[in-house]
Amino acid sequence: MPSNTASSSSAPAGSADSSASRTKSKRPKYSKFTQQELPACKPILTPGWVVLTFLVISVIFIPLGVVSLFASQDVVEIVDRYDNDCVPTPARANKVAYIQGVSDKSCNRTLVVPKKMKQPIYVYYQLENFYQNHRRYVKSRSDSQLRSVKDENQIDACKPEDDVNGRPIVPCGLIAWSLFNDTYALSKNNQPLTVNKRGIAWKSDREHKFGKNVFPKNFQEGNITGGGRLDANKSLSEQEDLIVWMRTAALPTFRKLYGKIESDLEKGDTIHVTLLNNYNTYSFDGKKKLVLSTTSWLGGKNDFLGIAYLTVGGICFFLALVFTIMYLVKPRRLGDPTYLSWNRVPGGGR
Amino acid sequence: MKRFVYINDDEASKELCCDNRMSNTKYTLWNFFPKNLMEQFSRFMNQYFLLIACLQLWSLITPVNPASTWGPLIFIFAVSASKEAWDDYHRYLSDKKANEREVWIVKHGIKKHIQAQDIQVGNIVWLRENDEVPCDLVLLGTSDPQGVCYVEGVIECPIPDKDIRRFDANMRLFPPFIDNDVCSLTIKNTLLQSCYLRNTEWACGVSVYTGNQTKLGMCRGVAEPKITAMDAMIDKLTGAIFVFQIVVVMVLGVAGNVWKDTEARKQWYVQYPEEAPWYELLVIPLRFELLCSIMIPISIKVSLDLVKGLYAKFIEWDVEMVDQETGTASYAANTAISEDLGQVEYILTDKTGTLTDNKMIFRRCCIGGIFYGNENGDALKDTQLLDAITSGSTDVIRFLTVMAICNTVIPVRSKAGDIIYKAQSQDEDALVIAAAKLHMVFVGKNANLLELMFNGEMIRYEVLEILEFTSDRKRMSVVVKDSQNGKIILLSKGADESILPSARTGQQTRTIAEAVEHYAQLGLRTLCLAWRELEEDEYLEWSVKFKEANSVLVDREWRIAEVCQLLEHDLYILGVTAIEDRLQDGVPETIETLRKAGINFWMLTGDKQNTAIQIALSCNFISPEPKGQLLLIDGKTEEDVSRSLERVLLTMRTTTSEPKDVAFVIDGWALEIALKHHRKDFVELAILSKTAICCRVTPSQKAQLVEILKSCDYRTLAIGDGGNDVRMIQQADIGVGISGREGLQAARAADYSIGRFRFLKRLILVHGRYSYNRTAFLSQYSFYKSLLICFIQIFFSFISGVSGTSLFNSVSLMAYNVFYTSVPVLVSVIDKDLSETTVMQHPQILFYCQAGRLLNPSTFAGWFGRSLFHAIVVFVITIHAYAYEKSEMEELGMVALSGCIWLQAFVVAQETNSFTVLQHLSIWGNLVGFYVLNFLFSAIPSSGMYTIMFRLCSQPSYWITMFLIVGAGMGPIFALKYYRYTYRPSKINILQQAERMGGPILTLGNIETQPRTIEKDVSPVSIRSPVYEPLLSESPNPTRRSFGPGAPFEFFQSQSRLSSSSGYTRNCKDN
What we know:
heterodimer; A: 350 residues; alpha+beta; four-stranded antiparallel sheet; 10 helices; 10 strands; 16% strand; B: 1071 residues; nine-stranded mixed sheet; nine-stranded antiparallel sheet; 37 helices; 17% strand; CDC50/LEM3_fam (chain A); transmembrane helix (chain A); membrane (chain A); transmembrane (chain A); ALA-interacting subunit (chain A)
């Protein structure tokens, strides 16, 4: 106690003592939480539980995978790529010039139904290498303008397709401007096949996102014409092709609903498609495909989920097996104190 | 600079000093926002986030709504600001309470009630018992009869400073009272602000320093915030992520520009203009910068602050750390450094009051060469001594007189009629009480008149002077006049080294020195008592000098010491007292446990060497032979010390390979020399040595030692209880104060204050360790979740033309860090990997924290890899499951986001060691909360997400996709964890298994009894290697057991001169 005394011999120090202890003598309240003693479940990874978990996962995943795969297999899908074939042979050297020219763009395709297709049969167009998710593109729209007439002038985000000589374009923006405009006319055994184009867009979009009293204005009247044109007498909420198009796709390969066929197609039926090949995908090597597809509970034809489930289930089963074997071959006592050595060896260790 | 205080004269002092308004607040109402913002923006991270937020205002480059950054930024700023405001408001309230407290002042002879804040310098303040002192006062009088009331005068005192030990002032009273007589004032004449008046009915004093100019007010400064090792590591990792982010941004920026020029120009629907503005090249990199800015979690600071606050609360709430005797709970003054507790490598501890109880009991004495109390260990019951007293042996009676009155003790008669002693020093208290038991009862102090009752006979002494104790002089004396015969006597007591040299020529001090040595070996504190009769002339002559020295304003302490020296010579040594200072409960166990945990202990004490060594032995500080070995460094000259240091170093180097408990012992003098001339060697020694005993060290040397250890990158914890430990406590990474008998100075300066030393075990092993583990998880997890979402954005950019499109919408991005992922992780602060009992039984497990094995670049790489893996899983599954007709932007974004949220929940669940109700609630409740929130967003027609979540949840493919993501994401991680857990278990895992398989104590109890439980390797290289290198190894090393019992016990190796040396040279003893 060298200089302790020196400090404590000054009167204030001593007296400060009791003051503070008085203020601090509040005992903490006891509760399970404050003492960090809430009842807890502390699971440990015993081999049994782990193997069981993996087994259970595989037992769930493998059947799910099989079911998904079956669902996907049940879907009948006809895919027809027509972007190349629909360009007349002489024009193929310069497809861009062809598509931008004024010559007749109609084209006939024949599809054969491989299996019975139950209605409703969805007609999609599929674009590939088309970046609807491009930053410049995806933002180029004005939701408020689409919704109500009074926001017609809200076109800030729409550049460069915002106005024509100072008059706002409705609907503005690159997305609307580049509206897909190939058309398909289907006939089965020379009988026209009705493609219902109503109700292809989301109900919520029709009712809330696209106004009933918003009509196209100054659309495609700029210097360059992009894609399709719109009927200026139909309100936007009725322009379902536009609504579908404006639900931008997140991937460069995507399908958009063109219409629905509300009758069954039998195996071997031939379907003639008369299409107008208007849309330019040639300048960027994009593919265009016409797709007729039924659906299952999982959606369209997509084997991915089934295969992925089988793979994960298989891996889990394999892991369960491996862990069982490891346990049998080289059993380890959990919490074996012989592994608990506190030695530190310089340069040693694993 | 001096200040003149005119007592009771408002006009004279008004203009020169402030009023007594105290203000501890950091802000005022007006400057709160600017000042708080300035403070928050002084952090680099906040500046960075502000820059990002500002960049987002540029709509050309922002991938999402600026709200996604501004929202969290404002939220986080608001949380920090409210915390500050709350703290400051409480400071304001307590100030207000103190300022508006009513106090009495005496003005023109009339007592008046005023508010404390209105006290002016020069006012006379009147206090009653238990009142708090409102400002620094010079004491004028007390209820003690000798009190005199001065009315007018001037006090000449230094300008306000923060040194609470010094107050060198003079008081001159105006006529007609005492004619211009200068009266010296020292710190002993003052009552400092915030102290309490005790044991006195009333006191009055004149205020000299007021408001924020008081000693306390000047001391109060903004303490420099301590940075924990963990915070430093987190900062480092943040820096690494920052660099990574910049690289990613640059790569993607270049790729984006290239893609734009080669591909995007062909895509007519994008309409890239032919002519670009000058900044065109910057646009894409900047977009990516914004996209990637979430890589650094904006919420980490707030989360960490929150959990740190909770750690501190857990410490304060802990009922097992409440001192049952006084009911004092532990207190965490610094809420930010709990993790450091788990990483302590060195503990520097004071001895008295820290390891010991500071409850002194007089045990033995040696009077005139005769040992009393040696047989039964209690001199009070030694019949030989009692006989000597009844027979009236002069030496014995003188000895008892010195014991009874050579002190500053005040006897107070309680209501029951008993005498209670008020002593400032525990030693004095012990001596007076012992004297009373030996029939020399100190019954009363009446002004300067002391009354002693000896065998029913009243003896009166008049105190002429008190020669105060200082740590330099290491002794104190009083000059008294025997009222019976008028003889003037000097009574001295002090450390042997300061008393024995002043012994009268001719007196044999050898037996005394041997007695001191003997007692010290028993771990007792010794004091030598001495006596000398003074001639009247000698005294008068000296008295004048003493008075002169007392009124010097410069170097007063030194001058006084010099004058005292003139009187304290030719002493007749009466004998030696031996006082026992008992060890606190649980000290040996605590030290043993903590040493097992790999913490090195240094004892820094002012006691003499032998006492220190004995205490060290008895509290497991050092092992007894044959395992222990003590190396002594001493010497009076530089050469001696250097030689001794060399030798010790050599021994240290050679014995590091042996499983020996080597400690070095150094005294203050040698330390001074070693630090001055051989700093490098000493530092090496410090690194080599696990244990050290430093005796006779001064407060500043204690601080220097802390500094040395810190300079070697060790995490240090200093623990002490007294004012002399304050500097060391403030210097150390963690300062722990014991709120004990010696006052609260240490506890106030400390980061943590605990009631008893043994709580240190719990503080470090339980609270420190849990805090470290929890923060390690929380911080890495924060990075993981931010990286996860960021990686997905990066992957998405590769399929969106490297144009910087955000897959997620603004709302999701904003809510992701702040709402969706923060709740479960915050609850991880109540996670416990091992139970407290297990940790206490296996303190070695602390290695993991000390070595920083739970948070370091390699563990971080694990989390980084996990987030990369999970991002791939989520991204690949999402884009394949939601391909073709389902690839709608909003839907795909939400599927990916839900995938992330599901994985989060399972990752937290997998990393949780103990599930309480709260954990289940937060993990699964958070998942439910995510859907509820998103249903809400989906119900707003104007939001981009309108109906999205309803659509998704009604699709079977959505749920199938979620299960797939969880299965594919967690399966491999779970398998890997199981594999490690079972086949490559860490010690923590083994203990977890043992604990939960039941009977942990049975299976593991024998581990501690295994002969070599810990052997911390101390080769300097391995210790100084980066902390994340594995310090533990699995393989036992039996070859090092070669050290057998045959080796000689070298307690004091070759240098030993303690027991063998005949020359009595060194020895320290202080009061």
